[in-house]
Amino acid sequence: MAQILYTFTLLKNKRVNSKHIGKIREIRMIWKSKSAITKMQALAIVIIIVVAAIAAYYLTRPTPTLIKNPDTIITTVYGPPSTLDPAFAYDGIVQIMNVYETLIFFDKEHIDRFRPVLATEVPTIENGLISPDGLTYIFPIRKGVKFHNGNPLTPEDVEYSFERMMVCDPDGGPVWMLLQPLLDRYCTRDENGNIAVSAEEIDKAVESNATHVIFHLKKPYPAFLQILSLSVGVILDKEWCIEQGCWPGTWNNWTEYNNPSTPPLDTKMMGTGPFKFEKWDRSAGEFIIVRNEDYWGEPAKVKRVVWKFIPEWSTKIMMFLKGDIDIIADVPKAYIQQLEGVEGIVCFKDLPLLAIITMVFNFNISSTSPYIGSGKLDGEGIPPNFFADKYVRLGFAYSFPYEEYIQEAYLGEAKRIATCIPDNIPFYNPEQEMYSLNLTKAEECFRKAFNGELWEKGFKVTVPYGIGMDYEEETRIALEMLAENLREVNPKFQLIIQGVELTTYEAQLYGEDPSPVPLNAAAMWWADFADPDNFFSGFMGSAGMYSWNMYFSTPYIDELLANGSSTLDPEVRREVYYELQRIYHDEVLGIPLVQLIGRWYQRDWIKGWYFRPVWEEVVLYSELEKGY
Predict the structure, then answer these.
(1) Whole-angstrom distance, CA of residue 264 vs CA of residue 266
(2) Measured between alpha carbons, how far is residue 247 from residues 178, 190, 209 in Å?
(3) Cα 282 from chain centroid?
(4) Signed CA dihedral, 116, 117, 123, 128: sign only
């Protein structure tokens, strides 16, 4: 009898409906009674009810969708990687990180916690693997690891991998992230393209012995462990690299391998990771990796991962809905309603990305700029120093409709920011003031600009944007809203919007000194690593990407940046970065538009995905599986 009652309990947990439960209770009462029927008859009835209940459960429960390609995860992106060489790659990172491995990596979703990978320990001051002055990092190297060609991993391979990165240092590549902490510079060449570091400097920065690899930093660098977790920290097989024509590890001719025009590992991969490179079929538009059956750690849960490069949204959505694609991570805002509430599809929303977009003022516009009209404050143009007047910048800041813009351009899926860093970066100041739309204050400021002359004469300025640039539509919407409000403040204020061929626009914005672009309407920064220095240096430093030819940086700002990036003391860093946020706001160095919010779409049979704010697109597919 106890076994039968236990069966009832299990059935209830299986969601047997109330009708069946009622019958079961009735049978229990019959069993306990002294009625005419025998206990054997009651037992037979119980068995009938149990069988009927089980049948009802399996007949009425939702039927899972048939899992297509159960051993393969198929995902899609718009285009293929530009290269597979880690020294060159800024895209294609997800493929690199699933074939190669780093010494350490982020611990799941955390941006400030790490787990050992090819190292056996994460260095800390407490375990003695980081020196008290923050200048020496020691990594014990894991034994028994093999590259996909069977070669054993050695500390010499690790040393070579980092030295090769610095030796290559291609223009526009990611190697600056290593050079900054190890050599205290952003490039191995000077502004004229001449070699500016010595072989000895590179060689001494990374050393190895039979069991360990040692890094010698030029200055303490709080983000160093993060950088080692990125693609610039992947470990290569020295012997294999040399066979492919890479730097041979010698110092008498290292400059011959600096800034190569063609990536030596452009279409080749040989790592230690849970997946091996199978093929990159450019004609078919797909990239395939397969499970490494000889992996040193826990093997991948699926046998294969396929990236399909599909630019057309209609094709992509059809395949996703049919289950031929498992993951789509880049659904345009205009199409998100097509996937709302679709059975079998899971959407993770409100993912705060480490990415922002701001407008940046040019304090010293080129006098030959085609965008400033007459070049004078006469109502037919603007002078080159137009935005050097703080009241002009304040007027623009109060003229922008921040909340309305987020609703119009991003359908409400973006966040306001106060300065040039996102709110989930360390040392973000939640109390920092931010500007809001206020046309009355805008008028007050404009009336004070240029000693009142601006208000009387007005201005005419053309603001360009790149045709085909990322967030082109959102940029155009922002400029249209700004132009409309400026006209409302004063009909003499004319902001003209002009689309420019993308390569021309980028050359004007980043290649000319001073820049002819009066206002960078879409200065976007996607974090290289989750540290405030990565944002502030780019937006405020005298050598920053968005500030070097806009002329608003000061020696005081540069001093703050140097202090913040070279101390491990969190209180000192907080003080520095709070001050930089105050300066950005008070001096109105730009108009902070949005922090981007992301989404992730997958079929409901995909299990194991989690959101990590830094390099969120780098999914470790060995952690995912397919099933219900």
Answers:
(1) 6
(2) 18, 21, 21
(3) 25
(4) positive
Residues in the chain, total: 628
CA atoms of 382 and 384, how far apart (whole Å): 7
Q: Inter-axis angle of helices 390-398 and 472-489, to 10 degrees?
A: 110
pLDDT, tens digit, 9 for 90 and up, residues 127-151: 999 999 999 999 999 999 999 999 9
Which of the residue ranges 8-17, 236-245, 612-621 has the most confident prediction, judged by mean pLDDT?
236-245
Does the pTM surpass 0.85? The reply is yes
Distance, CA of 234 to CA of 265 (rounded, Å):
13
Q: Look at residue 194 and give its three-state secondary structure.
A: coil
Please state, in angstroms and rounded to a whole number, the distance separating the CA atoms of residues 581 and 419: 6
Cβ within 8 Å of residue 55, ≥6 positions away: none
Alpha helices (runs of H) in 17-154, residue ranges in sequence order = 18-32, 39-60, 93-99
In the 8-state DSSP scheme, what is residue 211?
A: S
| C-beta neighbour count of 344 within 10 angstroms | 12
Contact 347, 600 (CB under 8 A): yes
Tens digits of residue pLDDT in 519-531: 999 999 999 999 9
- 186 three-state secondary structure: coil
Q: What are phi and psi of 350, to 5 degrees?
A: 55, 45
Q: How far apart are CA 527 and CA 510, in angstroms?
A: 19
Q: Is the peptide bond before 220 cis (omega within 30 degrees of 0)?
A: no
Contact 241, 234 (CB under 8 A): no
Contacts of 434 (CB under 8 A, 6+ apart): 416, 417, 418, 585, 592
Contact 175, 104 (CB under 8 A): no
Distance CA(41)–CA(43), nearest Å, equals 5
Which DSSP string corresponds to 315-344? HHHHHHHHTS--EE----GGGGGGGTT-TT
Q: Reduce the secondary structure of 116-149 to three states and give it as a string.
A: ECCECCCCCCCCCCECCCCCEEEEEECCCCECCC
- The residues with which 440 forms a beta bridge, in sequence order, are none
How many Cβ atoms are within 10 Å of 513's Cβ, its own excluded?
Answer: 11
* pLDDT (tens digit per residue) in 239-281: 999 999 999 999 999 999 999 999 999 999 999 999 999 999 9
Q: Give residue 34's identity as a one-letter amino acid code.
A: K
CA pair distance 524, 169, nearest whole angstrom: 24
| Tokens 């813009």, residue located | 405
Collapsed DSSP state (helix, strand, coil) of residue 508? helix
d(CA 83, CA 96) in angstroms, rounded, equals 10
Nearest to 106 by CA among 214, 211, 231: 231
Question: Token pair for residue 451?
Answer: 């000693």
